[in-house]
Design a protein that fits this description.
- With 460 residues, the chain is an alpha/beta fold.
- The chain folds into two domains: 124 residues, 3-Layer(aba) Sandwich (Leucine Aminopeptidase, subunit E, domain 1); 315 residues, Zn peptidases (Aminopeptidase, 3-Layer(aba) Sandwich), CATH 3.40.630.10.
- 35% of the residues lie in helices and 21% in strands.
- The strands form four sheets. Strands 6, 7, 8, 9, 10, 13, 14, 15 and 17 form a nine-stranded mixed β-sheet that branches.
- Strand 2 and strand 3 form a beta hairpin.
- The mean pLDDT is 96.
- Belongs to the peptidase M17 family.
Length: 460
Amino acid sequence: MPFRFADPTTPSLPLHLIEADGLAGWLEGQPEEWRGWVEASGFSGAIGEALILPGPDGAPAAALAGYGSAAARRRGRFALAAAVARLGTGTYRIASGLPAGAAAEEALGWLLAAYRFTRYAGSNGTGAQLVAPEGIDAARVEILAEAEALTRDLVNTPASDMGPQELEDAARALAEEFSAQIEVTAGAELEQGFPMIHTVGRASTRAPRLIDMRWGKAGPTLTLVGKGVCFDTGGLNLKPGGSMGLMKKDMGGAANVLGLARAIMALGLPLRLRVLIPAVENAVAGDAFRPQDILTSRKGLTVEINNTDAEGRLVLADALALADEETPDLIVSMATLTGAARVAVGPDLAPFYTDDEPLAAALAGAGSAQADPLWRMPFWEPYEAKIEPGIADLDNAPAGGMAGSITAALFLRRFVTDSPRYAHFDIYAWNPSALPARTKGGVGQGPRAILAALPEVLGL
């Protein structure tokens, strides 16, 4: 569905955002009948509350949305979105109570509150529409909402309908929409040029491939690399059922970089963009790769396989090696890579790694400003020895289980040796339960922050 603000000429109800400690003050200047109506309703201004106020003829004349307290808003995001579903069908214009600095976030939250995954059942969400608040870049907010919706749709689609071919189809559709170029490497060429991508995906009936999309003819160079494991059984180190249940989302890194690419192209940023997605299914068959196999990567580094369920870093490594060969100004990898990251920061934060202090500061600041929270993790040098097994250059699954996200990030960094700036995001890409503006299911983590940081990082 399109994510658009209402036509500003459409008749609309004034909507007042009421803070919990500001209700009494707001009521003092209102008609007596409204004061009685609000008091009788029990409306208190808490986040998530909404109330329609009647006019003299009983028809809706205005509306209230609870905006809570500053402390309550700091404990979450998109406070206004919590009230949208309770407002019902109609068009609204914010009349008071919206801080200027929060207008873009709350407007984006309103649009995202309408998201529903409807491919198989159900219908689109709330019919409440919003006239864009004054002072925001409405077109940009709409682009962000549509980019997020693309990411969510891709993650939410089950593996039966989102294998390597379907992920390629989604990339091709995006390339066609924005006149980007796309190449796909598969078969013998993949086996020869990207041996670890081929090895991870060769046991599946759905052929592995590397998707390579390019857009833009001038400006600094940005390469996005997204993990596209469309389903992960764990391979011969088979996952238990409880751990396999959400593995349709193991291509969440690819979904996030495609959503980010959509936003970059729709905004027409003056840069040269490349998107690399190793698309595979990690399956079990007679030709599946095995524990203690030793693989030779595109970069020439050898990797001892100590767990076939640590496959994401293998496919990313070959793609990162290709990205590094062009030495772009910035490489960003995104992947649902480790359970260790979820244990460390939970599902709501996107951990990221970089050695570049200005890049780290720009990303962290943008995350806070864009309601897209990030948390910096360390490339901890003393752990380098953990990924060196002795029998090969690298170990894909160090024993002991400690620092799993850090050792995975260190593994990936070995494949980016020539490019000046690199950041890796170990994301979850999933909401375990519904939150304001975020339905249960697939979600973008990091793209808005990365997008907002690009002008500073790349000098746009």
